[in-house]
Design the sequence.
């Protein structure tokens, strides 16, 4: 699913002063791209990500997810898009402590009213993909940070979303676990053409991304595709 923001601005009113969290951001992200949004703390990464994910509305400008212009949709339609098209992974994981690992990953499928037998099969498949089959019946509070993050990834992917949005997915992980998680997400991105959009400070993410969008003081200051430089033609 193609994502497009057109001259998006987000302003917050703090007393008498206006915070320009995002200024005039125009960006097009193609299906299957892995994009890192990079910038210092307070530069507007999370705000931009939240607007793309239909969690927040821009003050001005347009946001398109595929053929849907988010500005025009009511709350219930936005909720449907969040539930069906987008997987969110946040640094605090947002897992439900009273549920088991299985129960956490199953929850979005329950919300989509997927029948029990299919739920079981899809959850087991996802737990296998993230290497947590042995932990299915554990409570999430019994898991390490890296394992919790893998539960959050499994929960985000089990609905087979077209887009995964993540705010600092590796922030609470040691570098080895962070790298493993990134390799896993990269594989899922390549195998299933899931679009990945990560807000991050992490060099490991920036190195792996297809494209790095740099943001400073709410403004996109650089947008570059990574990978092989175009070959110079040898003449003569
Ligand atoms: N709800 C809000 N009310 C007022 N100001 C806000 C609000 N949310 C964000 N801001 C401000 O908007 C700016 C951008 O914040 P944002 O969280 O998007 O930055 P960020 O790049 O994600 O930072 P970090 O890397 O620290 O998470 C900051 O100046 C922040 O203080």
Sequence:
């Amino acid at each position: 699913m193609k994502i497009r923001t057109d001259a998006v601005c987000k302003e917050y009113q703090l007393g008498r002063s206006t915070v320009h969290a995002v200024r005039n951001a125009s960006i097009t992200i193609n299906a299957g791209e892995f994009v890192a949004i990079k910038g210092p703390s307070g530069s507007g990464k999370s705000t931009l990500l939240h607007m793309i994910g239909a969690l927040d509305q821009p003050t001005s400008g347009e946001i398109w997810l595929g053929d849907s212009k988010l500005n025009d949709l009511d709350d219930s339609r936005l909720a449907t898009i969040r539930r069906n098209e987008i997987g969110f992974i946040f640094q605090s994981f947002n897992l439900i402590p009273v549920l088991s690992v299985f129960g956490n990953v199953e929850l979005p499928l329950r919300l989509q009213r997927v029948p029990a037998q299919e739920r079981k099969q899809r959850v087991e498949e996802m737990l296998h993909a993230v290497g947590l089959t042995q932990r299915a019946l554990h409570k999430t509070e019994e898991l390490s940070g890296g394992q919790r993050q893998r539960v959050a990834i499994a929960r985000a992917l089990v609905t087979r979303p077209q887009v995964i949005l993540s705010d600092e997915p590796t922030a609470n992980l040691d570098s080895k676990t962070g790298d493993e998680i990134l390799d896993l997400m990269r594989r899922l991105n390549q195998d299933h053409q899931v679009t990945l959009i990560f807000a991050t400070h992490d060099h490991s993410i920036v190195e792996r991304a297809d494209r790095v969008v740099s943001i400073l003081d709410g403004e996109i200051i650089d947008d570059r595709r990574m990978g092989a430089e175009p070959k110079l033609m040898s003449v003569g």
The radius of gyration is 19 Å.
